[in-house]
Design a protein that fits this description.
Elements (H helix, E strand, L loop, with lengths): L1 E7 L2 E7 L17 E8 L2 E10 L8 E8 L10 E9 L11 H6 L1 H15 L3 H23 L4 H6 L2 H6 L4 H18 L10 H27 L3
Parallel strand pairs: 2-6
Antiparallel strand pairs: 1-2, 3-4, 4-5, 5-6
Bound molecules: zinc ion.
The site of zinc ion has 8 residues, from loops.
Length: 228
């Protein structure tokens, strides 16, 4: 077992680490790394430890953090703190957009795909994030149409996004969704048609579709809950 010294509220303390992570999260090589340092998540709770490792592959050498959890609740006086490797911590600083409960109910797939795409975008996977937003749009449009005419669900599911958008009655939703589709298709095709537009414009258009759909759902909900 590897020993490492950590700072605690009682001063420095030597702790023992169980197995080390055996695969680098960057180069995916199998490695036998040595801990460079460790830090308690929370001084008041000895339970969780973040341990820094450096990839031992000569061409990689990236530093990453692994999460450890206390093996047994030993007393401070016994000076025998052991920690087990749990997982490699992937920093997740993405702030997910929030959608109204009406949108979440209408299309949980749209919300899930949109959030996953935001994570891809935050990880600078911009070449594929656009495709994700295009996919999210397709789920939103189709779930919106299926909600209106549940009997057409099977037809709508099999129809391409463009013809689906044409089925939308509301002029504003249709016009904005149409433009979002144009930009979304640019993200999936080899040649861009809208050179001066980018993924930010696609996101703005999708958010506008969400805004109008949300307003319509809220309107219908309010009217049905307060009939004349
Ligand atoms: Zn590596």
């Amino acid at each position: 077992m590897e020993e490492i010294v950590i700072d605690t509220t009682f001063g420095k303390l030597s702790v023992k680490l169980g197995t080390s992570p055996n695969k680098c999260p960057f180069c995916h090589c199998f490695i036998h790394p040595t801990a460079m340092g460790a830090s308690l998540r929370d001084f008041s709770n000895m339970g969780q430890l973040d341990v820094a490792f450096k990839c031992t592959s000569k061409v990689c050498q990236q530093v990453f953090v692994a999460e450890y959890r206390q093996h047994h609740k030993s007393s401070f006086t016994s000076n025998n703190f052991c920690y087990d490797f749990i997982k490699i911590s992937i920093p997740n600083q993405t702030v997910s957009s929030s959608f109204s409960p009406l949108i979440e109910k209408l299309s949980p797939d749209f919300v899930a795909i949109y959030h996953q795409t935001e994570r891809a975008e935050a990880a600078e996977l911009d070449r594929i994030a656009g495709v994700g937003y295009r996919k999210a749009l397709e789920f939103l449009v189709k779930d919106y149409l299926i909600d209106k005419v549940p009997g057409d669900a099977e037809v709508i599911k099999k129809t391409m996004l463009g013809p689906c958008v044409k089925k939308i009655d509301d002029k504003r939703i249709k016009e904005v969704a149409e433009r979002a589709t144009w930009l979304g298709n640019d993200e999936t095709h080899y040649v861009r048609k809208w050179i001066e537009k980018d993924m930010k414009d696609l996101k703005s258009l999708i958010n506008l579709v969400v805004h109008y759909v949300d307003a319509e759902l809220l309107y219908l909900d309010t009217i049905s809950s307060m009939p004349k």
